[in-house]
Amino acid sequence: MKVTEPLIDTGQVDLAGFDRALGDPADPAALLSFARSAELDRGERFPADICRELDRMGLPSLYVPAEFGGALTRYDELVAALRAVARRDLTVAIGHGKTFLGGVCMWLAGRPEQARELGADIIAGAPVSWGLTERGHGSDLLAGETTATPEPGGGFRVHGEKWLINNATRGTLLCLLVRTRPEGGPRGFSLLLADKRRLPADRWRPLPKVPTHGIRGADISGIALDDCPFPADALIGEQGAGLEIALKALQLTRTACTALSLGAADQAVRLAEEFAARRELYGRRLVELPHVRRVLGEAYAALYAAEIVSVLAARSVHTLPEEMAVISAVAKSYVPTRVDELIAACGELLGARAFLTEVHEHGAFQKLERDHRVVGIFDGSTFVNQHVLINHFPVLARGHQKGTADEEAVGRTADLSAPPPPARLDRLSLLARGGCGFTQSLHTASGELRAPASAGEVPARVAELAEELTNSCDRLHRELALIPPASQDVQPEAFALASRYEQCFAGAAALRLWLHNRTPGEDPLWLEAVLTYVLRSVRPPGQPTDGEVFDRLFDARAAGRPASPPTSVVTW
Amino acid sequence: MNIPESAPSDTDLRSWLRARVAHYVQLDVADIDTTTALTTYGLDSVYALILCGDIEDHLELVLEPTVAWDHPTIDALARHLEETLAQGSPSGESR
Amino acid sequence: MIDETGSRDAQAGIAGPEDDPATAASIEDLAAATIDTPTTASLNDLEHLFGDPWDPDNPTGHAAVLAADEAGEMLAAGERLLDGYGLNAEFVPPELGGRLTRLDHLIEVMRVVFRYDPCLGLGYGASSLIPAVNVWAAGDERQRRRMAEVLLAGGRAVSGYHELAHGNDFARAEFSALPGDDGRLRLNGRKEVIANARRAEAMVLFARTSDAPGSRSHSQLFVEKADLPAGAPVHLPRFHSAGMRGVQLGGLEFRDCPIPADAVLGAPGLGMETALRSFQVTRTALPAMTAGILETGLEVTARFANERVLYGRSLAGMPYIGSILADAFTDLLICDCLATVTARSVHLLPGETSLYASAAKYFVATLLMDAMDALSRVLGAQFYIRDGGYGIFQKHLRDLAPAGFGHTARVACLSTVLPQLPRLARKGWLDDTQPPAGVFHLGADLPPLPFERLSISSGGRDSLSASLSAALGSCELDGELRRLVLVIAAEQADVRRECAALAPGDLTVAARPEALRLAARYAAVLAATACVNIWLHNRERHDAFLSDPRWAVAALGRIAERVGRDPGQRPRHVTERLSAEVLSRYRDRRGFGLSNRRLPG
User: Fold this and answer.
1) What is any Pfam family matched here (chain B) (predicted)?
2) Which CATH class is domain A129-231?
């Protein structure tokens, strides 16, 4: 379908209209359809036409902050828009959304006119890429060997290869992390904006498309620079500040990337639900089998937990910027991992239909399963993000003990009725000195449940779960305090603690979301399900979890009763 | 455990089988007809195997596990069991 | 390592790491440790035919296998190699001229094939094995002879159970074979997602042969393509798939197609029974063969960890990476123990295999998939790339998917085990009759495969489970391992108590998830029982690794965690011993399974 007026533009972000315009992927005539996606995936072709339509709808302007000419004023809106695209086709979302990643360093550190210029390019539809990684070094940014040698008359000469870069070839512009001190080190790297339109054509070349397991149509490639001259004004931020800027930028991009997982989860749940509702087995419909209802009920709880973490992390950019080092690491580790599990569970219901590439909505499920595995890998893998979290154990433990949380800011994050205050990107920090407000304020949050629970307004069970989570979280922080400061020999136990911390965070976020958005008489079923879901991984072994709440959640959704947290916005 | 002193009478066996079937399909005993195929009550092939195990334990016999596949109503099953008991369990030895 | 004098570290039962550098095993030890079986020679032949998987010019190495996968074709060089080796003979009993004497040997041979290329494993191997076993289990003299002749001549067989609309519920299959006017059977209907449908000379088809309800209305038909009228069957278009891309999945459609009257396997109406009996062999064998995928996964990941430097140090040296390698290796050993014991039980306890085969299929497939997922996270971005040095990993990961849903989905396996459990709880588990010790003796002689004695119900007997408490009676079992066996025994007692209380509605496909979970917990206890008994019964093998209790400690700990029990803190040296073993086996080119065999290359 053709859209004449952009739905996303400066001062006007019509997310519902955008979602409607994307259409129902089961309809082969929709812009993003299962049929078209399958065809592109088979041919390993970039969804260029679809991306052009997204450009026309105005999606790129959501990648540019309003102050630089775009429509981005709320990071939760960015998450919602990317999720809407990912819900239809993850490859498209990854291929288009990369431009946000490519621009972030500029928004954080660029000169205003430099940023406005990039903003104008993006809004005009120029893809922007972000070149951090190199062959053989993976996530180890300090090992980067692409060098930029300052030239006597200003400018740089850049030599080396950036590889395994999304949109490296399609991108008109690339934000590159380069070594500007031969000895490297934390102050030895800088960021340069490569504008291919201005670089001498004989000094750079794209590297071939890398064949990938999923997102087969995406442009995963690289760029080789051969003593390529860059003008002085290509520098983003201070020389030597590249690593710090990139690490702060990653706090924003990792948060935004969780939207990709949410879209994948939306699609997986839909495909599994529809299959279970239609499929006849053993003389009944699949959906009548108790274990199938349980699997779907648990999938809803997993999806809710993931979306609550994702959406509140995005709002935290506005309200808790100092904590984003922790919050973004939690979100990027937690959300893709839970969604990988959710996809596996739904896939088991689908059986052969999760394996065949042409049956059941054109083999959408197997594509989605392959595509989504990249989300836990790129932009900092789960391993890397848990490492960041482990590095924060001492401050988390200290902050938890002191209880210095800004509870009002936590409340503003969770209260969806009010738009968040403007983002203060200048307050992002590589270390969340005060720890994390969500987990610190669990005591207050579960305390607020006590009165309504004793008044019978809230099931006692929910208050008990909140209490248990609070106690578990306290116990966890006592364990965090015992972990020696992260050396390079991080023991496996530390990773297990990081996973538990993430679950506590998710539970705390869910509790906050309910407290700040509840309406009188509302059944807190989704909260009970999410708390049960997270506690299952937090409880010491030997304390089995009763899963019947997931059955009630399934029944409620099947009956069309409202049972979703207010972060759920799914339409098709 | 029910240890039969002597072989149970045909009626005993029938009513015991009816009770077992009623138990499995969660219906009232009165609703179980002894001439109706067990599959009609939703006793599929797997259930038939369970029923066989119950009968073995009840009568202290060893039976072919498929006994309820081959004698698919309570009447047919009871008749077969009667014969088996009368012949001194040809399809297996008493345990 | 356990002190030879018999004095043990009473507290831990296993000594600290300083006593046993992982690299201590000498080459002599290893040679002696190799489990000597009559097929060792032929296994080595097969390995050498396949050659060094990492050699880029090897026509059956990883590079060639990947290229065939990309093209969606079977690896032609691999098929020729297996023709030359006469792989089909492994599927044919000796009295019919083949080499199928023992299930554990068949598994070892097929595992080599799966390690190189799962498409060959399924498309050349398992897809012919499944119909063949049906014929061995229920066919008459002529049918058995003909199936053997087809296979020994290098032909292919297919089995037609699956209809997309009915999945694992094959009792509702619509495909029918009803008598026509001339008395001959007429085939009508379609079978879908059938490997090698177009290439097969012989087929075993599952068909409704009576309109009556119940379990006596289906039969298997042994049909040779040469006996069909021209134009039959109609071949459906190929089904393309995300994994096993080289395997040609097709479909067969018959329209009023006459077949010879003697096509029925056994007597009419025995179809369900024959399927349930012969599936015990194939549900045991297939997941066990598929473990070759995890072997390759471990090898690729160990190679990556060994080569990769991150933050200035080798990935292999990072404790967390080491623990993931150790856990995946432990899971492989658990799979091996359970699969081996189950395979040996088919020979020694055929009456009880209905229980073990489905439990093993569920548990082994689950462990394999989880372990490959965990390893993929070590590889990170390298896992996601389809070419280059580690591209073979993602192919193996994709090829593993059918282990979960193919040849009976995992949940359907649990539904097979579950109805048997209440009776065991009331009776069988109170009986401590022990299995023959031979089920645990790796490589020991076995009687011929008793196809005719496989039964669709264990009749309330479960002697393997009884061997858990017997293990506790062994004075060899002490320290950490004894503590963990007690944890598993507590789980076993809980499972028994809960099974005794199951309601009738919980024994059907409509079972509550908690009831299905009981079958899964039963399978986990069975796996732990296999592990501890494999350790107890094979300590005299001069395999320094196998006789070290640490692998069993790790295995029982992993299993306890899986069923939600607290295994306690695993001593660090246990994990380190296992991760060091992974790396040393990688460097010495040895297999990662129980057999610890040397590999070519």
Assistant:
1) PP-binding
2) mainly beta
